[in-house]
Amino acid sequence: MAFIIAVDGPAASGKGTVASRLAALYGYPMLDTGLLYRAVGVRLLEAGGDLDDATAAEAAARGLDLAELEKAQVRTRAAGEAASRVAVHPGVRAALFDLQRGFTLREPGSVIDGRDIGTVIAPEAPAKLFVTARPEVRADRRWKQLLGQGETVAYDEILADIRKRDERDGGRASAPMTQAPDAVLLDTSEMTIQQAFDAARRIVETARARSGDLPG
Ligand code: C5P
Q1: 169 CA: nearest ligand 1 atom
Q2: Is 20 inside any structural domain?
Q3: 84 lines ligand 1 (CB under 6 A)
């Protein structure tokens, strides 16, 4: 069976960094599923659509071209906000399901990060992490990242964004962000990137040993 490493958690928790380092370590392909929702949001906004219109959002998701994930716009603050609004629609989630599910079936393994990977997309994943950090720490990281991308924005606004996004992602009816019962919690609030990666690697190695697979 494919060795799926599912990495879930809230915005700017460090999950993307941890996921890409794990992918490099094991030589596995990686999918950042947040980009899919971001690209759907951007697509809908560019077409002049309404993010709260479930039918239009689902159509945008069904017509998604993977080349759209490469656009710089999908990494903006506005795209993150749009993503979390289109992500509440069950039709959008259903439209993106097969692509994500197919990715997890790749041999010998894969790393996939998002909000519902361990709960909905790959509940059978042998290695599951739920990466988090305090909202203030996450806001500081996201703020610095956006400044680096040339976006001028106040820290307080980012903190408000993060809190609103946590609430929306955790409170929605369809596939809410939640830690799977068998996921290991990794709080990176007081960790450097290297420490977070080392901790994540230990979690994955334990899961590998348990699943009877040899370390790669
Ligand atoms: O991870 P990122 O911040 O790029 O995700 C953007 C938004 O996409 C999240 O706030 C969430 O609403 C949505 N998302 C989701 N399920 C995923 C990945 C992202 O609902 N698996």
Answers
A1: 12
A2: yes
A3: yes
Q: d(Cα 197, Cα 5) in Å, to the nearest integer?
A: 14
Among 169, 174, 178, the mutation site with the greatest number of ligand 1 atoms within 8 A of its Cβ is 169
Tell me which residue has its CA closest to atom 20 in ligand 1: 87
Count of positions (residues) in the chain? 216
pLDDT of amino acid 122:
98
pLDDT in tens, 119-178: 999 999 999 999 999 999 999 999 999 899 898 899 999 999 999 999 999 999 999 999
- Structural domain count, the chain: 1
Q: How far is the CA of 211 from the centre of ligand 1 (A)?
A: 29
Give the CATH number for residue 117. Answer: 3.40.50.300
Confidence of residue 93 (pLDDT cuts 50, 70, 90): very high
Furthest CA-CA distance within the chain: 51
Q: What range defines the domain where residue 168 resides?
A: 3-196
- Asked if residue 135 is part of any domain, the answer here is yes
* CA atoms of 178 and 96, how far apart (whole Å): 19
Is residue 63 situated within a structural domain? yes
d(CA 3, CA 208): 8
DSSP letter at 71? Answer: S
Calculate mean pLDDT across residues 12-17: 95
Q: Establish whether residue 83 lines the binding site of ligand 1, counting it when its CB lies within 6 angstroms of any ligand atom.
A: yes
Ligand 1 in reach of 104 Cβ (< 6 A): no
> Is 213 a domain residue?
no
Is residue 97 classed exposed, middle or buried when 0-12, 13-18 and 19+ CB atoms within 10 A define those classes? middle
